[in-house]
Design goal:
Blueprint (H helix, E strand, L loop, with lengths): L8 H5 L1 H14 L20 E3 L11 H11 L3 E3 L7 H11 L6 E8 L8 E8 L13 E3 L4 E4 L3 E10 L4 E14 L10 H23 L17
Antiparallel strand pairs: 1-2, 3-4, 4-8, 5-6, 6-7, 7-8
Helix pairs in contact: 3-5, 4-5
Length: 232
Amino acid sequence: MRMWTVVSRRPVRGGLFSAAVAGALLLGATGCGGGGDEGEDGVPDDYKIVAGTQLCGGNAVSADAAKALKVITGSSRFEASSEEYSVEQAATDLAAMFNAPHHSGDICRIYTPLGTSEFDLRVTWRQVDPDTTGSPASKFTVLKMGERALTAADEASIQFGCRSDKVAGASAVGHLEVGVEHWATPTEPEGDVGALKDAYATVAHSFALAMAKELGCANNAGLPAKPVLDPA
């Protein structure tokens, strides 16, 4: 479920109406607030546009990751995340679901503002078994982060081992993967493939490190403080 189910993005995207909505939102982006009532244009009164570092609970996107989001989406401003889309909530859900049959979930969804070029990024977590991990597809570059880090021009993922009472317990290691993916019909990525790979890896690292910290993983699950973009 996305931030505002009352807003249909495709109709609002086109034509003069889209331009008018975009202008209104950009003018009022920093001052929106209230109970979510809709205005005459069908956009909630408290619709907000924020910087990348304010997304997903405010502690998930580093300054470097915010710059990477601009490389990926072409925008430095985004729809504000709803309360359920935060690293804190995702870590709570993960701890409750660890070793359950369906051990995966959303961390956040990132959208460009209404009235701009539409872009949808999905950030997820899942429990993994490193012994059953196969070889990556040819589009991926393997990086030197965590247990396994892969990046491509439209997605990236980082796998890490976490010792924490919130996951497998302090005496065992829970293996997790955080992924970032362009949620769209598959197409050839547009732009500098190398720059896009670095950008996706940077965003995936930011979320993986934030999750490791939120889960209380020992030594931050061995993840570096800054993304390592050198191929393995």
